[in-house]
Structures are given as structure tokens and as C-alpha cells.
Design goal:
4 copies of one chain form a homotetramer. Chain A has about 270 residues and is of the alpha/beta class. Helices cover about 20% and strands about 30% of the residues of chain A. Chains B and D meet through strand 13 and strand 14 of B and strand 13 and strand 14 of D.
């Protein structure tokens, strides 16, 4: 992903070609190459130099919109062999954990790399993402996904069980996307900068309860548990109304910050009150 | 805001001192200065060199946690004279509109500058935020807020009515935080890069309906309307449950992308189905 | 429906036989009759005298639970040719409109009769439900549904366009399940007892807005608009969590009460504040 | 509460006088009596014979609407010394548990009697509500509330600990509004008609999890856990939008039905899927 695109598609750009039946193709433009689709062939050279937002046509006459993909478009179309985090959750994680240019962020597990891609996008060229997973083949898929959007240089993938610990120290933020984060909080504390941000996502309340118990036994404060619910609306302006169905649950988000020496005189915030 | 903090607070760092009764102080550390609070005085020199996450004490013995603030902490404590956008909404806006390092983002109106701060944080040193508002005094407050967190260099504030048009062309994304975005869509199209991202937030359904009508009459596609609902939970692991009350409504988010030449053969996505 | 069931199923009882693959059969027990199912035959005489909650078997050995159906079970299994109201909405309508034994309730349109069944169940033997619909064939289905649960004697079905007016006066409550209730509010006022309850359900905000406009021009007060959202949880006690998907929208409920002589000195309640 | 009211208020009617500042008075009309309020005096004889929905005036000239109260109005204004169930939850409980005319319903504990009032209203003159609570003084308040709305004859209050068991057998439905329903499921089974309806409401997920565990160990099926969320909207038709805040949580509703002899070949419904 280029940081910012020009008005026209150029060689090296990651482009999204959005065609019929909601089908998208993501390619990096390269002179003399062609894109083969079920709806016909398009030469990269026929794309290079076209204005973004244009409607292009394959040799069979099928239309495609030429778009620069947003992070959310990439995440929705990621190759996956595991459940991936939803943009609604990633967006809020970024806000609470302060993810931005120049930071060092650690995550485990890598999974299909959706959150990895989001972190890599946001930390920019000066930042760094370290991602642990115990399965090498899963990390291969994440690496493919990162490479496709040209963010692989910002990410260090390590194949290792979390219980063996992390190599890093003083990272800005640690996110665990694992079933049992409550077992690894001391490992988190050793690698997290004091005052740093911890986050996790968990599907069941039983896991959340265990995590809250463990957090209360370690040096964490500013603990927060929440859910993000996203409700879409139908876009007919004369018949405006919510969609009939929605995703009701993806996971509970748990956040906390490591502290040194808890003083009970300080009341901690009770979010939502 | 330094991109990434070291293990200890250093001169020039933006720090949050979180004290009793949920009261936070945000200061940039400077040798020989002091922080005056209702709970006593702390010398900046007594903070410089301390580990993040430490509990420090004023001359009266009142405790404060030394924290590096996340974007969300800064936004919550922003000086304001207008309603500001909530982190839950900003987080999702960033995802859908692809805000990240190196981009050029335009917004109107500036208001108290919450979204301006978020955009400025995310676009990094290579990015740029241009923010219009018709009231100079409101922009003064936004400038104060930006300066406090040292992001003022990434932002260009312009005092002007939107109906007079924007100076910029080919910006990556435009966000309108105004009551009547439906009146300005042609102005948006002129300044937005083809294929670029448009977004707005509106409190009432009547405004959303008018905006959808206008969008359907201009060259926009990939229109999406949604709401983000954030539900907090009480963090007692033995009595885990949602909080009693919640924010039920902040605004409807409307997103669209400009396109050149709409081909009706392409079905557009219907989010949420 | 018998008002209250004995411990065993008796002739004349409406019973639910809940079998494999979530398939239910609703029958009124009658000596010497048989129930034919895709999973085998059961004689009514083999059901009469059995304890409720028992597991019975067809001649092919397929199991069925013998249950006395609740209103909600009947509604879920109603024959329908129109969208029917959901139990979550009907339950709240009953509370706000004070539906109970002995009352006279008017509705239009009848549709498949789900709300008709609910009203008929609740008004008891002394109550009365009058239901208008412009299509006779739709009312035939409602009549079948009412007869199946033996509540037909409490309901008077009238085939007529609402714009021609209702015959009744001074009814306790009127519910309109129609696309344009805003066109019929004067007709409602003529048939509703002063102080009586008006209710309607509408899928789009445009319809709600028009209805609110019309209500404000007639003699109605205590106006209330709400939505009922029902979130189910998976029932595994070790992995307790919300279901993945939910019904996001059925309709907006609008309630009001007719009044004689509005005094602006009386502040009306603002629900939800 | 009269089953159905005439067009005018009559002696013996329960009336609601809704005055300034959202203040309501509930009285049973009686010849020669007077109502004393902070906004002046009204003689009952000045109310008897007036049309419902009229605006009446005290001797000081303050206005009051004369309304026949719905169940929901009574519940909202109930005297209470405990948290009472919300109408949104009661309405759904009634639907799922099939509460209606002629039934026998048992509850524990009585609390301030909100659910008791609702059940008593719905079971009609032929029905019966038995309500247990271990505290006599709490039941006194419930009795006052029931007497005020003239439903006391349908309710039998018993002062006893639940662990001592219920006297009744074969009741149609049992609702436990207690912190630990999971301790009493065998007691429930002994008093509930086979196939009958069990329900409970619980604030925390920990309690729900324990209840689900216990239910899975007893003869219960058709287990369902849900939450009812009620979202109000502001009623300005030109600025239609949700209210800013809402009640986010009252309790989780748990429902089940007793069965005799569970056959694992029968798949039980998974609500919400």
C-alpha cells in the first residue's frame, strides 16, 4: 500500500478491481502483466494511468471499478483459515491501545493476519509489528496476505508457543488473540513497557471472567471490558431502516494497562457510567 | 506525541498524570517547570526519568499514575465547546476511510478538533490534515488542543464557509461534520480524488435520508450507513455483567466513494446482509 | 386453548407434539382420531391421559414431546402469507396498551392473525377482538389459525377498507398494522374511547416520521416510539456467549393515547431519558 | 382494575391523574372523597362522570389528565423497596411462559410485587397467583400495591424461605426472582406441572452460567437465555432519532420447560439461529 495515491493508478500500486456479483480482485500493477478473471482478461497496462474510480472493461466487456482499497476492503477479502477479527473491533482496539505511526506492537497469535495487517498499516515505516504463532503454516498464510499488500517489511513473524515467552521488551502494546490469555499475563508484563497497553478479544463470558480474575492478581489497572455492535441500515432514502439481520456477537474486548505500584487511593474509571 | 515512548518519561514527552477522583492532567515535560494541581505540586524534574506506569506523589502526598496517553485518553479530556465525536465512531471511520500514515485528509467543520487530532495522529509526519470551519474562535480551541499534543504541524486550519469551496484537489478522504452535508456533495467531488472516501456523521434520520437522496444524484457508489453501539461491562469477575446504562446514540455514520461513470451492471454491496 | 391444563392431556386439549428436526404438530385431541406425520402415526387415544412433558413414540418409534403450547409456540408455528409480528414486539405492545381480560380491542389489518391470536388469548372469555382487513382470503387464513387454537369465538372479523371507517365506538385499544396509519388517525379517534390506547408498528423511519407528524396534529398525547431488540445466548454453561447473529430489526413501535383538550402546561414524559 | 372501562370515570374505577412535572396520582374513585395534592385539591365527585382523557383542574387551577392506567403505568409508579422488573422484561416473560386468563402461576420472591401485579392482572378472575417471599414486611408492600389496584383477591402471599418448598402442585408456570435459582430447581420440578414453564431473571452472567449447569442436570428442556433491549426515540418528526442514553442492562432472562424422560434423538431448538 502506497501511503497516498495519485489521481491515477501507477505501476506498483495495489489496486482493487470491483466487478459483478460483489467479486473483487486485488493486484499490484506491473507493466506487461495480465489479470485473468472468470469475467475476462484485463492487461495491467490498460489499468496503469487510468483515473481511480473509473469503470474499466475486460476483453469480454465485463465492467470493473478501479479502486484504491481501504484497509477495511483488504481485511474483508483476506485469505483466511481461521476466524478473523472484524473491522468494527479492530477500529476500536486501535483507538484504545493508541496504535499509530512509529510504534512497536506485539501480537499472538498471528492467525490469518488480519490484525497483523491493520497494525502494520498503522505503525507506518518507522513502526514495527512482532507476531507470534505456534503454527508455521498459519503464519505462511499471514505472510502471503502481508506480502500482497506490501506490508511484510514492517512485520516480524515468530513461530513459537506463547508459554515460552517473548523475546521483546518494552513494546508499546501487546494484543493476545488466544483462547487463554489469562495464562500469559506475567509473560505480557515482562515484555510490555510499564504503562503500556494490553488487549485481548474473547468469545465467551467464561473466558472474560477468568481474564478479569488474572488481571486483578497482576499489576494491571484501567481495566475495561466492552462489546462493539455494528448496525447497518438499508440505503433507500425513501424507505430508510435498519437491515433485517446483524452480526450479534464477535467477541468481548478486554483492555488493561500495566502499572508499577498500585495505590488504592486512586479510583479507577468505570467506563460506561 | 512522540511516535513511541521509551521506558521512562523524558523531557518533551506528553504525559498524563491520572490522580484521585478520575482527574487527569496532560503536560509536556520541561526541565525546571512545575505542575500545580488542587491536590498539590509536582516538579517536572521529579517526573523526568521515572518509569511509565509508576505511582508518583505530589508535595501533599496525593498519588498520580504516570501514563503515556493513548489517543482515546486525549480525546476524552479535550477542551471542547461543541459536541465531539466519540472514539467508537472515530475508530470505525478510520477503518472504513482507510486513514493511515502519509495520507491527505480534509475535514469540515473543525469544531473542538477531536477528529482533527485523531486524523493528525494517524497520518503521521508525512501526512497532512486540512480542516475548515466558518468560526475562527472555534478553530482557536482546536489549535490549542492540537498544540497541547504537539500535532499542530500536521494540520492546516482554514476559516471559511464550506459553500465557498475547498482549495484542495485530489485529497484521499473528506469528512464532513456538519448539519447539512447533502448541500455540499458537488464541492466534495471537486476536491476528492476519484475513488476517494467520503464520510459524515448525522444525529437524525431526517438528515441521513436527505444525504442518501443527494448521494444518489451525484457520482457516488459503495454507500453505507451504520451505527456503532458500544456496550461496557462491569469488571468484577465474580459478578460479570453489562453496565446499567449506556450511550444509546451518538450519530449515524454515512460513507460513500466517488466514482467516474457508474455501470449499473455492477451490483453494489449491501452491508449487513 | 384451555385456560389452564390438568396434569395430563385430555380430549379437547390443544397439544403440541415436538419431534425430531425441530418439527412441531399442533392438534386438538379427539377420541378415535389419528395424527399422520412423516415420522409415523400416533393415535389421539394414545395421547389422551398421558402426562404433559412425556416423550411419546410414533408407530415407527420416532419420539415426540407432548407439550401444552404457550402463545409464543403457537405464534411461531402459525400458517402465514404475510410477515407476522414477533413475540418480542407483541409482548411489549400488550404491556403498554394494557391488553388483558375483559377488554375490547380493535385491529387493522388482520394479516395472518398473529396479533389477533395474541389479543384473543389475553382478553379472555369476557373480552372481544374486532379485526378489519380489506382482503377476505387473508382473513380466511387468520380464521383457520384462530380456529385451530379454539379462540375464534372471541374474534369478529370484518372485511373492509379502513378508509371506510370502523363500526365500533369506545373500544379500549386500537392497533393498526398497516403501511400508512398516518392517514387514519381521525378514524381511530372516532372509534377509540377517550383516553384509549393507540399503537402501530412500522418498518421504516419515513413512515414513523409521517405518523409522528399526524399524531401532533390530532388529539393525541403520551406519544412514544421505541424498538425492542432481542438478543439470544448460547446455552452452554461453560462457553456462555451471545449467538452469532440476531434479528436486527422488525419494526418501530409507536404508541399514543387520545386526550380531550390538551393543556400545554402539562409536560409529557420523554421515555428513555 | 375494571376489566374494561366505560367512556366516563365511574365510582370504583382506578384512575390515574397525570399532572405537571410528570407527577401521577392513582386513586380508586369514591363518592364524597377528595384527593389532596401539592398542586391543589380535587373532589372525587368532580371526577366521576367525566370522560376519560379529559383535562381536569384542581381548586388552584392546576391541570390533570384523567386517564385509565395501563399495567405499564401502574408498574412504573409502584411503591418499591427493591429493584422491580421492567415492563420490557415482563412483557416477554408473559409471552414465553404463556401467562393468560385462568392460569395458576407461582412466583418467588414477591419483592415489591411488580411481577405479581402483572401476573394477577393477566390471569383474570378465574386465575390464581401464589407468591412466596421470606420477608413479611416486603410482602406487606406488595399487598398494598395489589390492593391499590384491586387485584389482591387473585393473589395468595406466603411468607416462607424457598428452601422449605412450595405447598402447590401442578401449577402452570413458576418464576423465580431470586439470586440463586440454581439451588431450587428440584423444588420447582415438584410443584410445576410436567411440561410447565420455568423462568428466572438474573443480573450477572455468573448466575446464568450456574443456572444453565443446574438445568442441564435436571429434567428440563427447551432452555433459552435472552436479553430484551428497549431503545426509545425522540418523537420530533422533523428531527427523528434515538434518545441519547438508554438502560443497557436489567437482567438475563432464562426459560425452560420440565419434561419427563429426555430423548436425545430430539434436537432442541437453538433460539436466535
Amino acid at each position: 500500500m502506497r501511503p497516498s495515491y495519485s489521481e491515477v493508478a501507477r505501476e506498483g500500486d495495489l489496486v482493487q478491481l470491483y466487478g459483478k456479483s460483489y467479486k473483487s480482485h486485488f493486484i499490484v500493477l506491473k507493466h506487461a502483466q495480465t489479470l485473468q478473471t472468470h469475467r475476462g482478461v484485463i492487461a495491467h497496462d490498460a489499468i496503469i494511468g487510468q483515473k481511480w474510480g473509473s469503470c474499466l472493461y475486460s476483453h469480454q466487456g465485463n465492467p470493473f471499478y478501479l479502486m484504491q482499497p481501504a484497509l477495511v476492503d483488504i481485511l474483508k477479502n483476506l485469505k483466511r483459515n481461521t476466524q478473523i477479527m472484524y473491522p468494527k473491533d479492530i477500529g476500536y482496539v486501535n483507538m484504545v491501545m493508541g496504535i499509530g505511526p512509529g510504534q512497536t506492537v506485539l501480537e499472538a497469535g498471528t492467525g490469518s493476519g488480519a490484525l497483523t495487517c491493520a497494525f502494520a498499516f498503522l505503525v507506518g515505516n518507522e513502526g514495527r509489528v512482532i507476531s507470534y504463532d505456534r503454527k508455521a503454516e498459519i503464519q505462511q498464510l499471514a505472510l502471503q496476505n502481508l506480502t500482497k499488500i506490501n506490508l511484510q517489511d514492517r512485520v516480524i513473524l515468530k513461530t513459537r508457543e506463547v508459554e515460552l515467552g517473548f523475546d521483546e521488551e518494552n513494546v508499546d502494546a501487546i494484543f493476545l488473540d488466544l483462547p487463554n490469555p489469562y495464562d500469559y499475563l506475567q509473560i505480557v508484563e515482562r515484555s510490555l513497557k510499564p504503562g503500556g497497553f494490553f488487549g485481548t478479544i474473547l468469545p465467551t463470558v467464561n473466558q472474560v471472567s477468568l481474564t478479569l480474575k488474572s488481571l486483578s492478581q497482576e499489576n494491571f489497572a484501567f481495566i475495561e471490558v466492552c462489546e462493539i455492535m455494528l448496525r447497518f441500515y438499508k440505503t433507500d432514502w425513501e424507505r430508510f431502516r435498519p437491515t433485517d439481520r446483524m452480526i450479534a456477537h464477535t467477541g468481548f474486548l478486554v483492555f488493561a494497562r500495566s502499572v508499577l505500584g498500585i495505590d488504592p487511593a486512586i479510583e479507577l474509571p468505570d467506563p460506561g457510567e
